[in-house]
Design brief:
Oligomer: single chain
Helix content: 25-40%
Shape: globular
Distance between the termini: 7 Å
Family: Belongs to the AP endonuclease 2 family.
Order of helices and strands: EHEHEHEHEHEHHEEEHEH
Catalytic activity: Endonucleolytic cleavage to 5'-phosphooligonucleotide end-products
CATH class: Alpha Beta
Number of strands: 10
Strand content: 5-15%
Largest sheet: 8 strands, parallel, barrel
Radius of gyration: 18 Å
Protein name: Probable endonuclease 4
Structural class: alpha/beta
CATH superfamily: Divalent-metal-dependent TIM barrel enzymes
Number of domains: 1
Pfam families: AP_endonuc_2 (PF01261)
Function: Endonuclease IV plays a role in DNA repair. It cleaves phosphodiester bonds at apurinic or apyrimidinic (AP) sites, generating a 3'-hydroxyl group and a 5'-terminal sugar phosphate.
Strand order of the largest sheet: 1-2-3-4-5-6-7-10
CATH topology: TIM Barrel
Length: about 280
């Protein structure tokens, strides 16, 4: 069965997100744990979480993907920014421990004035400070487009981060289509080759989620801007090929659109479900 959902707002709680997902025939969803630019978040509503978990079980909703704010930057050597990122990650993971079946997505960030190797080591160090042997939430690294001094832009860089993590069994990768396209991977003309390279470098067992998004710019541009699905440089057919690829069977897919309305997402969910061959 295809696991597919979209990005929703958390402002009305977990139960409401699950109901919105079910209303568009989705069986998963993604959300920001707080404002994407970083802020405090409201206290966890235990009644809402309990109601959500019951609703999700009844409606087959699973693998909800919690997205850390963009301003949490683990690659930097600026201590105030690193402290902020570690505070955000620790708070988020403590709350997600109460929300069974969650995934947690972070962006590796930007190294600014330090070397690539130092930036990668900083990301791994941050992961080692937040990951515990007994935790149940899997932490995912987002594939980055290579804008500015971003790290985690290539499969080799992601592998280098994971290799330095003390408990790599709790770490995976979210394959962001627009990001890998912007980095230069040809998911349109050579999807098999790209996935084979991912498997050789990182291991497909680490590919835990896929962002289904289209791109406004050409491959290798290092510009991560989303087009409406089917109207960009990647195109619907290439994204549908990802959904149907046997090596990605069972992986959850999360739609991302520049105009994130339920009407658009309902259309997208239906299109991919219709294209899915099982």
């Amino acid at each position: 069965m295809l696991t597919i959902g979209c990005h929703l707002s958390k402002r009305r709680g977990y139960l409401e997100m699950a109901k919105e997902a079910a209303s568009i025939n989705a069986n998963t969803f993604q959300y920001f744990t707080r404002s994407p630019r970083g802020s405090e978040q409201a206290a966890l509503d235990e009644k809402d979480v309990a109601a959500y978990l019951a609703f999700a079980k009844e409606h087959g909703i699973h693998d909800a993907l919690a997205y850390a704010p963009y301003d949490a930057d683990p690659a930097t050597d600026k201590m105030n920014e690193r402290d902020f990122a570690l505070m955000v990650y620790s708070e988020d993971l403590a709350r997600l421990a109460e929300v069974d079946g969650s995934l947690y997505l972070i962006r590796p960030g930007s190294r600014l004035d330090i070397s690539v190797e130092e930036g990668l080591a900083d990301v791994a160090d941050a992961l080692n400070k937040i990951i515990t042997p007994s935790m149940k939430t899997c932490v995912l690294l987002d594939t980055m487009a290579g804008e500015g001094t971003q790290v985690g832009t290539s499969f080799e860089q992601l592998a280098a981060i994971i290799a330095k993590v003390d408990h790599p069994e709790h770490v995976g990768v979210c394959f962001d289509c627009a990001g890998v396209w912007a980095e230069g991977y040809d998911i349109v003309g050579d999807l098999d080759g790209v996935l084979e390279e991912f498997d050789r470098t990182i291991g497909l067992d680490k590919l835990k989620a896929v962002h289904l998004n289209d791109a406004t710019h050409e491959r290798g541009s290092h510009v991560d801007r989303h087009a409406r699905i089917g109207e960009g440089k990647i195109g619907f057919d290439a994204l549908a090929a990802l959904v149907n690829h046997p090596k990605l069977a069972g992986v959850p897919f999360y739609l991302e659109e520049p105009d994130s309305t339920l009407v658009i997402y309902e259309r997208d969910v239906a299109r991919f479900q219709e294209a899915y061959k099982g």
